[in-house]
Amino acid sequence: MEQSLLQTCYIETPLGHAKISGNENGIASVSILDSQEELSESIPEALLDCVIQLKEYFNTTRKNFDLKLHPEGTEFQKKVWKQLETIPFGKSISYLQLSKQLGDVKAIRAAARANGKNPLWIIIPCHRVIGSDGSLTGYAGGLHRKQWLLNHESEYKQQSLF
Questions:
Q1: Is position 145 within any domain?
Q2: Whether residue 2 has pLDDT greater than 60
Q3: Methylguanine DNA methyltransferase ribonuclease-like domain spans which residues (predicted)?
């Protein structure tokens, strides 16, 4: 069965312009760009739910995403990404904890590499994985964005207590 071509759109976020790609099979990638791509005037139907849910996330009205996902990756990468989806909003885990959850403490480097290859930034919350000592380590979008996302979720969580 032939996969249809990916559709793409660009939206504005507090972190910069985001590029979203996908088709009727699901969302394939979400990334924040360093360049200022021209924003999309219209959003393809296949990407509309993703755009809406990202805006809700940034407006602090959404904690979890409910989207059909279709990322490209190895079986191991997909296993890691599936595990990342279980990290609760506003929480973080270490790479060591991630490898333990995957059932192989020795797979810490492989899990970290798979985390870094996550094509669905924010949607699959790879930003919630930090160093064992609590330090921010590695984020394809830059550590400043990782810090922003963690702060955003922490502040939202605190606001919802009152």
A1: yes
A2: no
A3: 10-70
Same domain, 46 and 85: no
Instruction: Establish if 162 belongs to a structural domain.
Output: no
Token pair recorded at residue 13: 């976020």
pLDDT of residue 151: 94
What gap in Å lies between CA 92 and CA 133, rounded to an integer?
12
9 as an active site residue: the answer is no
**Residue 104 and residue 139 share a domain:** yes
Q: Tell me the pLDDT tens digit for each residue of 70-87.
A: 999 999 999 999 999 999
Closest alpha carbon to 54 in 90, 16, 81, 97? 16
Choose the catalytic residue: 9, 54, 112, 126: 126
Q: pTM of the full predicted structure?
A: 0.89
Q: Which domain holds residue 149?
A: 75-153
Residue 87 lies in a domain: yes
> For residues 126 and 84, is the Cβ–Cβ distance under 8 A?
yes
The total domain count for the chain is: 2
Per residue, the 3-state secondary structure of 10-26, as one string, reads: EEEECCEEEEEEEECCE
